[in-house]
Design a protein that fits this description.
Elements: H1 11-23, E1 26-27, H2 28-37, H3 44-57, E2 60-62, E3 70-73, H4 77-93, H5 97-107, H6 112-131
Antiparallel strand pairs: 1-3, 2-3
Helix pairs in contact: 1-2, 1-3, 2-3
Amino acid sequence: MARPRAKELTERELEVMHACWRKGEATAAEIRDQLAKDGRELAYTTVATLIRILSDKGFLMQTNQERPFTYKPLRSFDEVSGNLVWDLVERLFAGKREPLLVRLLEERKLTAKERAALEEVLREAKKQDAKKPDAKK
């Protein structure tokens, strides 16, 4: 019996998705060229196979009926990256975000840019919390 197709992205599929997100709408040849610019040389047939798999999984959509076929992402980078992060949290950290955050911060010192980005996220979260009605009242 054939194994059901995985919903997760393989490393190569994710590389193709990054190329698609950068290009927006592209042919297999354009995606292959983008991958080559990124330092990843793949045969046209490999790229075409990856595109077919990504289409079957619902990540890409063919946008025309004539050759060369053009494809566009059906899922945004934010959606895919969010799903991958939550999958990591669930599978590796038993659904707890704190151990992931601690691990990331212990791994290496934050740069000034990273620290500023983190502080901005925390400020925004605090603003959102302040806007929520207090459940105790």
